[in-house]
Each structure stands twice: as C-alpha cells, then as structure tokens.
C-alpha cells in the first residue's frame, strides 16, 4: 500500500494524516500488489493576477459556492481544492512580475543581474530548481516511475524572448527551461520517427569521443560544463532506446494543419497543446508537465471574447473601472474554461493499465504570478487544484493566513513520496508541508 492509499485509508477511519509517518512501515497495512499507483502533476499558469471578488469563494470548508470566474468547474467542485492565503513571500532583486513568475515554482530568490523590470532593482534568473523539475528528478530516480521524458513543458503564446517574465521552470540555479510553444514541434518530439537511427547514434559516438579529448585540456570550470554536455548525450542515447521500444497505449492525436503561432489562434493552439499533453501522459511519456499561457506581463488580446485591449494593460486599471473589471473577469473565466477542458479530457480518458480515469491519478494545479494585477501583490496567489492524483482531501475551499507557498510545494512533494525537508528558501519552508489531508 503506497502513501496515497494509506492516507485515504486513514481518512476513511477518521484519523489525521499526521499519523501517516507512524503507519508507513506497518506490515499489516502493506499491499500484496507491489506495483505503485501512478501519480501525475500538471501545473497550469495564467498571468496578471485575478479579480479577487469574482474568484474566491466566500465560504470555507466543503459547503462553498463557486463565483463567476471558477463557475466553469462546477461539475468538478467535489474534486477540487481552492486555496486562499497562499503567499509568495520571496523577496530580493527584481520587480513583482519577475519574482512572481520566476519564483513561483522555485520559491527562492532571483540572482542579481542586469535585466531591468519596472521600478525595482534589476535581477537575473532564479537561484534554484523549480518544483516541477524537482518532482521530475524524483520520479526519474525510481524504476517504477521513470518515463521517456520525465517532464514536458508546453507553452501557449509565450514570447520568443527569454527573461524572468517568461520562464517559470528551472532545472537548477541559473537554468531556465523554455516551454515549447509550437504544437507541431511538440508533436514531432513526441511521435516523430527517427529515419536514420544508426546515423544519429554514430554522431553521438563522435561527440562523446570529442568531449573526452577536450576534457583533458580545459579548466575545472569548463569541465563542469562539458560534463553537462556529456550527460545530455547520454540522455539522448537513452531516449533513442526508449523511443525504439515504446508502444503507444493511445494513438497519437491528429492536429489541425497550418495553425500559425499568432494571437488570434491562441484558443486553437491551446486545445492542440492540451490534447498533446493528455496523450503524452496517457502513453506514460512523462508524469510531470507544465502548461504556460502567455507569460508574466502577458499582453494577449482576447479578440475571440470581443475584448480588444491587451490583458496586461487591462490588469493595471483601478478597481473602480467597472468596464475593465468586467473584461478581466471574462478573461480569467476563459482561462478557467481551458482548465475545464484539460480536466475533462483527463476525466474522460480511462487510466491505461489501471483503474478509473486519468484524473483519478492526476492533479492539475492552476496558478498565477500575482494575486491582483493593479497592485502587483504577491499575497493571495490564486491556487486551484483539480483531480485526485496527490491524495489530498478534495471538495474544499480553504483559507489560510499568509502561508508561504514553499509549504504548498513541500506538500506536493511529500504526496508523491519525495520527503524533502525544505524547498526553495529554507526559512520560508518553516512549518513543513501544508496539511491538505
């Protein structure tokens, strides 16, 4: 019996989740089935804060009502958690958009740098790994959860430029990971056939040989970089072998042809990316994914909603501007509708080789870099969780008091069995994992 099944068992008994560490090793609670239950995590991002009066439920607990922005999720209300009072308390260099975006999943300070934001000090990249990559590394370290890619990073309308406003995933300090915007490129990565594998293997052999020759004549600092390149070569070789053996449980989706990466095509591009995401997880190519809609300071024009103003510009309008508040409510509701499409796809897809649906094994976390656009606050960051993959007790609206979001990411890590003591800024991890049992 894994940690999630034990947690459910304890909940059914009416026993606190705090008992989990004490019963984890009891033989009588062990299962004869050694196959671990699949767990997946998807983190979905949309920018520029929310309209709080139209987002947060007034009620706490199980008897809560969804307001207009979250109303598209009504059929999933018993399978969702709405978390208020989760704050990004990371400070330091950079403006709120920069720290909101690049500290969102890393929960640690930005490096000093020369990228100038708003009125605050310039900054560089994040100084630590992001939670999605932390989970990826944990899953990839285990035989029962290792997959071809480990994680996949999907983008929708993310700008070509690379800066702290556009990157939320980090492989480590100073290692931003770019999302793949183009669904055709993602399709080729997932399902493209290697026409000449022998030729590619020969190239990799040559690269490995050359790396060894250069290794002996460069500085220690450069050797560290060469070791990273060598690790990449090894990973490509592994990927070749896995791709050759992998059989698809679910056929590759058919994508519409000729959809250009431009503003007015964002709804179509979003559906294409979400179809690819669900399909890649159904075929167990990854257990972790991110889905990034535009970017911090994202200025998409939602013409399909009859809104011609840029999203970021609208988010700066004062609360008394009723027209902008109504438009921003519709924009955020549209993002929620995208979340509904994603979780509906998961709910309607049978778990390959397992019981129930994919949503029974997947938790989607929808979040934002700001709590409120016009104040640029990092308090009350919107966090909505949908799905039963992490074993949290769902169907609740919870209200906390200035909880550092480090503790939420700790709870997510612990829920898959990765029992790290801190994540991101160690001081902000005080108190340990947030109790969502």
Quaternary structure annotation: single chain
Report the end-to-end length measured between terminal Cα atoms: 17 Å
Task: Please count the helical segments.
Answer: 11
CATH architecture group name of the largest domain: 3-Layer(aba) Sandwich
Shape: globular
Q: What is the top-level CATH class of the largest domain? A: Alpha Beta
% residues in beta strands: 5-15%
Mind summarizing the main beta sheet? 7 strands, mixed
Share of helix, binned: 25-40%
CATH-assigned homologous superfamily of the largest domain = Alkaline Phosphatase, subunit A
Number of domains: 3
Output the radius of gyration.
Answer: 22 Å
Looking at this protein, list some descriptive labels.
alpha/beta, 9 strands, globular, single chain
Structure description:
About 4% of the residues have low confidence. A hairpin with a 5-residue loop joins strand 4 and strand 5. Helix 5 runs parallel beside helix 8, helix 6 runs antiparallel to helix 7 and helix 8 packs parallel to helix 10. The chain is globular, with a radius of gyration of 22 Å. It contains eleven helices and nine strands. It folds into three domains: 34 residues, no CATH class; 313 residues, 3-Layer(aba) Sandwich (Alkaline Phosphatase, subunit A), CATH 3.40.720; 77 residues, no CATH class. The two termini are 17 Å apart. A seven-stranded mixed sheet has the order 3-6-1-7-8-2-9, sandwiched between helices. The protein has a two-stranded antiparallel sheet with strand order 4-5. The protein has 437 residues and is of the alpha/beta class.
